[in-house]
């Protein structure tokens, strides 16, 4: 039986010598058992900064730890909207926040506004975004994921991000569901704050209205979390004594810069040892946190509230 190892080694050698952008389309059709070795090899090449990898598919692969593509910037989203009746500033801000800059719901909304012409109302985008989110996200989630997102929607005014594991336990939801939603960026947790993807607010609210048992549990959780004691003075003092994040980020940026320049210098030499060391430095740099710090959480925007 032929193994993929020789082919993967050949691919690795070629890409180390000549970096490239690799695109794998319809990745949702792939069999994880058959593509695991390939994805591991490509992940290593990405870590060494010798290649860039784009996975295109309906759903993220459980066997791949690659983050989803970020949405369009607001300026890029405005380019998609060009030629369509302009939304009022506040409506545009809420529309962009709800979509997270994803092109598909923006294009869908643009098509609807162009079709309706002067009959289109400034708030019609909310229906388009909610319909898209239901078809492409909500209806494809399992029951536990829907329950957790509905609970997260109801608890957004409560600081529960740091107690996410306990909340899942109280709701009878496995931690794997929480991790999957976070990986897919449908649930963003940063410290005590937790927000769901903006386009799912109306769907989560509707789910909550139809589920009395979940409403009761979430209500009890909200009361408990609101009554939780404040941090002990000693803990607060310890937190205050920590270095300022800006200083940490400055040091991290300097480390990144040194590693990058060292790798570039070594790549100018043809010796195999120098190129190997350059690759190792690049891999080390890839393992470090980015100087920019953690990603900003989604801007909250309740589609359901805007549709009325």
Show the helix and strand layout.
Layout: H1 5-17, E1 20-24, H2 32-47, E2 51-55, H3 74-81, H4 89-99, H5 103-116, H6 125-136, H7 143-154, H8 164-171, H9 175-183, E3 187-190, E4 193-196, H10 201-209, H11 212-226, H12 233-241, H13 245-267, H14 272-287, H15 303-307
Count of DSSP H/I helices: 15
Q: How far do the termini sit from each other?
A: 62 Å
Number of strands: 4
Q: Summarize the helix and strand pattern as letters.
A: HEHEHHHHHHHEEHHHHHH
Structural class: mainly alpha
As residue ranges, the low-confidence spans are: 233-246, 291-308
The rough form would be described as: globular
Strand content: 5-15%
Mean pLDDT across all amino acids: 77
User: Percent helix among the residues?
Assistant: 55-70%
Rg over alpha carbons? 23 Å
- Write out the strand line-up for the largest beta sheet, numbering strands in chain order: 1-2
Largest sheet: 2 strands, parallel
Question: What this model shows, in words?
Answer:
This protein is mainly alpha-helical and 308 residues long. Among the domains are: 5-55, no CATH class; 138-230, no CATH class. Helices cover 58% and strands 6% of the residues. A hairpin with a 2-residue loop joins strand 3 (187-190) and strand 4 (193-196). Helix 7 (143-154) crosses helix 10. The model is unreliable at 233-246 and 291-308 (pLDDT under 50).
């Amino acid at each position: 039986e032929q193994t993929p190892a020789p082919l993967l080694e050949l691919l690795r050698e070629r890409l180390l010598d000549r970096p490239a952008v690799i695109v794998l389309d319809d990745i949702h059709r792939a069999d994880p058992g058959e593509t695991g070795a390939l994805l591991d090899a490509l992940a290593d090449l990405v870590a060494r900064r010798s290649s860039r990898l784009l996975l295109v598919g309906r759903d993220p692969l459980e066997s791949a730890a690659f983050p989803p593509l970020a949405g369009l910037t607001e300026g890029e989203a405005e380019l998609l909207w060009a030629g369509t009746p302009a939304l009022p500033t506040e409506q545009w801000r809420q529309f962009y926040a709800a979509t997270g800059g994803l092109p598909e719901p923006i294009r869908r909304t643009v098509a609807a506004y162009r079709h309706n012409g002067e009959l289109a109302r400034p708030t019609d985008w909310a229906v388009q975004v909610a319909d898209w989110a239901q078809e492409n996200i909500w209806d494809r989630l399992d029951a536990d994921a829907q329950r957790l997102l509905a609970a997260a929607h109801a608890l957004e005014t409560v600081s529960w991000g740091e107690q996410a594991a306990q909340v899942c336990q109280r709701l009878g939801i496995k931690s794997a569901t929480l991790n999957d939603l976070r990986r897919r960026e449908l649930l963003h947790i940063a410290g005590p704050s937790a927000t769901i993807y903006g386009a799912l607010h109306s769907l989560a609210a509707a789910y909550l209205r139809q589920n009395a048992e979940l409403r009761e549990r979430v209500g009890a959780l909200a009361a408990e979390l609101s009554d939780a004691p404040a941090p002990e003075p000693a803990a607060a003092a310890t937190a205050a004594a920590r270095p300022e994040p800006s200083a940490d980020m400055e040091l991290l940026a300097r480390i990144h810069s040194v590693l990058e320049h060292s790798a570039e210098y070594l790549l100018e030499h043809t010796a195999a040892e120098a190129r190997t060391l350059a690759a190792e430095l690049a891999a080390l740099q890839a393992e470090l946190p980015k100087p920019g710090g953690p990603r900003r959480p989604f801007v909250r925007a309740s589609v359901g509230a805007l549709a009325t």
